[in-house]
């Protein structure tokens, strides 16, 4: 039987898609077959895996409505054992589904009942709102991962999420368990440390021991269409996702966490020595056709240092800001 996990938070920008893609990749590296279902009309899961979103004609919309089955809409990726059912813009139409429809919150669960057993893990990437799409994900799932950013409003958002999950348990008679994953965490900041302590004090064992740190390579890897565990496996962010995934496997399967973690690491080493799997893709330029990924030579689990495009962008932005400021000052003096 597949383990179905929804990755959800009412708030946007907390790392839902990033968590979904990296957890899925780590599961797959640990020799598990994985299906990602994108329930967010923004379709970020496809671009986060280096797929051309413009070429996708059908996906989770058809699956939810029962117009297609999993084999009809699941796309294989170049990561072994990772498949994706992408989102298309039509998915947004389900947000305004008529209240006269019969049990629309059960549509996804019903669609998964026949073909889901082909996968060990199914991860559902949810939109940043609590509507019919998120409701479908929660009713279909057995587990929920709640990514939470260490910020001022995290506690209130978590209490709202907890209430939503409890409502599902009662109204849908559905045994639903959840775990909290602290993301974008910088323990050098006092606020982050305080929020982390408060969340762990209140939710205790329902919080992953591992926190995901603020990591520039995570944002960079998403831009390049690669989960960070594949793009830059040696950075802290990637290693944290590997540990979090091992915790998740222990939560669902039992067993020793270190054994799960070692299986994931061994799988990633094999991937990095596989010429058919690229460590990073080129970004897709707005006016160009997608650039074919360049193949990295086989190498052990080691990532060479490379120019940080985000630092360069920030530096150029600072230079531009200074130039604009100087121009405004000269114009003012000339008045």
Automatic annotation (TrEMBL):
Q: Which domain of life is it from?
A: Bacteria
- Where in this chain does the record put each AAA domain? 3-177
Where are the membrane-spanning stretches? 312-333
Q: Which Gene3D superfamilies match?
A: P-loop containing nucleotide triphosphate hydrolases (3.40.50.300)
Q: List the InterPro entries hit by this protein, alphabetically.
A: AAA_dom, DNA_Partitioning_ATPase, P-loop_NTPase
This protein's record includes keyword Heme: no
Q: State the Pfam families in the record.
A: AAA_31 (PF13614)
Keywords (alphabetical) are:
Membrane, Transmembrane, Transmembrane helix
Q: Does the keyword Transmembrane apply?
A: yes
Role according to the record: Involved in chromosome partition. Localize to both poles of the predivisional cell following completion of DNA replication.
The protein in question is named Chromosome partitioning protein ParA
What species is given as this protein's source? Answer: Candidatus Terasakiella magnetica
Give the organism's phylogenetic lineage. Answer: Bacteria, Pseudomonadati, Pseudomonadota, Alphaproteobacteria, Rhodospirillales
């Amino acid at each position: 039987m597949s383990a179905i996990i929804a990755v959800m938070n009412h708030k946007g920008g907390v790392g839902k898609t990033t968590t979904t893609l990296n957890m899925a990749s780590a599961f797959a590296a640990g020799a598990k077959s994985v299906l990602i279902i994108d329930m967010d009309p923004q379709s970020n899961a496809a671009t986060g895996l280096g797929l051309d979103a413009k070429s996708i004609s059908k996906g989770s919309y058809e699956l939810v409505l029962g117009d297609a089955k999993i084999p009809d809409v699941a796309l294989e990726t170049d990561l072994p054992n990772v498949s994706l059912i992408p989102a298309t813009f039509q998915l947004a139409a389900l947000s305004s589904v008529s209240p006269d429809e019969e049990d629309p919150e059960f549509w996804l669960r019903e669609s998964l009942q026949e073909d889901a057993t082909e996968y060990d893990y199914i991860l559902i990437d949810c939109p940043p709102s609590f509507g019919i799409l998120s409701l479908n994900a929660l009713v279909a799932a057995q587990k929920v991962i709640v990514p939470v950013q260490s910020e001022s409003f995290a506690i209130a958002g978590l209490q709202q999420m907890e209430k939503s999950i409890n409502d599902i348990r009662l109204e849908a008679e559905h045994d639903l368990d959840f775990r909290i994953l602290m993301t974008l965490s910088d323990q050098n900041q006092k606020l982050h440390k305080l929020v982390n302590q408060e969340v762990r004090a209140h939710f205790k064992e329902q919080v992953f021991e591992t926190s995901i740190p603020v990591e520039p390579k995570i944002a960079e890897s998403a831009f390049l269409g690669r989960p960070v565990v594949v793009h830059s496996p040696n950075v802290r962010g990637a290693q944290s996702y590997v540990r979090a995934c091992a915790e998740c496997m222990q939560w669902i399967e039992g067993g020793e966490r270190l054994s799960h973690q070692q299986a994931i690491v061994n799988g990633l080493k094999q991937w990095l020595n596989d010429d058919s799997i690229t460590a990073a893709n080129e970004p897709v330029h707005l006016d160009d056709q997608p650039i074919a990924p360049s193949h990295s030579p086989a190498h052990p689990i080691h990532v060479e240092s490379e120019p940080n495009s985000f630092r360069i962008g920030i530096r150029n932005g600072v230079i531009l800001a200074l130039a604009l400021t100087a121009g405004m000052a000269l114009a003012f003096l000339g008045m």
